[in-house]
Amino acid sequence: MNQSFDIAVVGATGTVGETIVQILEERNFPIADLHLLASSESVGHSVPFRGKNVRVREVDEFDFSKVQLAFFAAGPAVTLSFAAKARAAGCMIVDLSGALPSAQAPQVVPEANAQALSGLSQPVQVSSPSPSATALAVALAPLRGLLQIEQLNVTACLAVSTQGREAVAELARQTTALLNLHPLETSFFDRQVAFNALAQVGKPDAQGHVPLEKRLVTELREVLGMPALKMSVTCIQVPVFFGDSFSVSLQLAGPVDLKAVNAALEAGDCIELVEDGDYPTAVGDAVGQDVVYVGRVRHGVDDTSQLNLWLTSDNVRKGAALNAVQLAELLIKDLL
Amino acid sequence: MNQSFDIAVVGATGTVGETIVQILEERNFPIADLHLLASSESVGHSVPFRGKNVRVREVDEFDFSKVQLAFFAAGPAVTLSFAAKARAAGCMIVDLSGALPSAQAPQVVPEANAQALSGLSQPVQVSSPSPSATALAVALAPLRGLLQIEQLNVTACLAVSTQGREAVAELARQTTALLNLHPLETSFFDRQVAFNALAQVGKPDAQGHVPLEKRLVTELREVLGMPALKMSVTCIQVPVFFGDSFSVSLQLAGPVDLKAVNAALEAGDCIELVEDGDYPTAVGDAVGQDVVYVGRVRHGVDDTSQLNLWLTSDNVRKGAALNAVQLAELLIKDLL
């Protein structure tokens, strides 16, 4: 096989799809032909790549035998409609929708469980986890060997961009209306998100957990290789455009040495540790970056068996698009 | 003694001080003369009370023997400078600054530990806890008898008004600047707070805890009567003007019955329980209200020994001014 590949990006006009195209160019991914695909509404748009505007075509009419690898960044329904067709055409798949069962497409974060890519049946299908699971996996991976985790508590402060363009537009629109004393309108969110914190992102099940929270638990357990990890997760929507933040509290079997934790985090892949009383933020640090920022590494109050962390990560880039491209790089490595 | 009292409010021009005056009027507190006091910068201002504008006078020159009760709502320094003088003049004190040691002025939230007011030496001094401790105490008080709490994890999403007027003005200024693509200026906060989440409110100690977090732990342990309660607390600053929200996770000794938890919360004082998949928010529910809203009552994921809650409360009103007035009402009850 030649040294370059024909690639498709499904959902190329979305926030994540566009960022995938941008990162493919940044990292000089060996691409011969790039095919940008989307639903009929987006046909006619174009996305810049290597100085040209690449036109977006309709996914329904695409012949996946033209490409060796496809990114699916357009939501579960689109993946369920076209992934099988792509695979039948011999196309490798990196899915970001969470629609494919792990048995068919394992959840992988290279910094945590790259080994899960070996021995998969051809053509390979792999899942890039949700932005929250990806960020947490990157930060917790280097601590697995060090800590005996009895319980993981996470409060995820999610940026509106996790919900896509409409959500971003609504935060901007609501904020402007409120500052101009105009009546507030809600369409995407069920209530005011500007200058507010929404405790629930999506519809809860009978147990009170929302899909985003259950997906985070399932994916994180798989990626960290800790299927029995006890977790409490609360995903809240904060009025932040880009960059997720995480308040993380780990209950451990015994006292933990913070020096060892800091050393492990320092040595971890794609982690930037912020020390000495400083702390990272979404806007000031994470956005546009390829690493997960970790700060406020400390014990519980009067409890050295507790470890608390604050994480922040670019939900669109590190949490989704970059992880997907990293997976694609690993998939083609053996083929080069 | 007559049926009405002469009252002083120290810090009358602050967000909390003004709200105390408003609540004293709303609840028809038996007041003969109301004395509004502040630092020299605020002298000349006036605050409306019972249809009149009451002029603010300088606290330095005030003779506390003129009043039977004083609210201190102007920060630790002012309390430390004038509380002793007020007490020497025979004046009862409700302090909101956290400056007085519990031995002299117990932390009290009427819904949780009103009994702490009995048997105090005259003139009585009592502390109204921080807004976070007050909200958590109201919500957790009815659960004390029901649950065996091994660990309490709290991520507090604090409104900027918790930091006072300057902080509120800075969030508005930064938001407007960003929406108009003007350069961002920070003065009160150490970095951009608009469309961001700040992981640290105040300067951390050698263990990485900030004063607000340590105060919350100390006060909550005292008010709930659980001096050994294990806690992990993260106080974050979110771009919300009014209303604190809390993501709370309790680790229990054994499985908990959610029906019993909901029943206990329903029966609790000053709690509004939001059920059936809905949830409360600061802006939509808590602001301007006299109750603490509780929602998202659920187990951990696959873990019935975990209890998760979402709380929201008006930090200025229920968290501070109203609690202080409730305390004053209890202090004068026996004197009526």
Automatic annotation (TrEMBL), chains A, B:
<dbReference type="Pfam" id="PF02774">
    <property type="entry name" value="Semialdhyde_dhC"/>
</dbReference>
<protein>
    <submittedName>
        <fullName>Aspartate-semialdehyde dehydrogenase (Peptidoglycan organisms)</fullName>
    </submittedName>
</protein>
<dbReference type="GO" id="GO:0008652">
    <property type="term" value="P:amino acid biosynthetic process"/>
</dbReference>
<comment type="similarity">
    <text>Belongs to the aspartate-semialdehyde dehydrogenase family.</text>
</comment>
<dbReference type="InterPro" id="IPR012280">
    <property type="entry name" value="Semialdhyde_DH_dimer_dom"/>
</dbReference>
<feature type="domain" description="Semialdehyde dehydrogenase NAD-binding">
    <location>
        <begin position="6"/>
        <end position="120"/>
    </location>
</feature>
<dbReference type="GO" id="GO:0051287">
    <property type="term" value="F:NAD binding"/>
</dbReference>
<dbReference type="GO" id="GO:0016620">
    <property type="term" value="F:oxidoreductase activity, acting on the aldehyde or oxo group of donors, NAD or NADP as acceptor"/>
</dbReference>
<dbReference type="InterPro" id="IPR000534">
    <property type="entry name" value="Semialdehyde_DH_NAD-bd"/>
</dbReference>
<dbReference type="Pfam" id="PF01118">
    <property type="entry name" value="Semialdhyde_dh"/>
</dbReference>
<dbReference type="GO" id="GO:0046983">
    <property type="term" value="F:protein dimerization activity"/>
</dbReference>
<dbReference type="InterPro" id="IPR036291">
    <property type="entry name" value="NAD(P)-bd_dom_sf"/>
</dbReference>
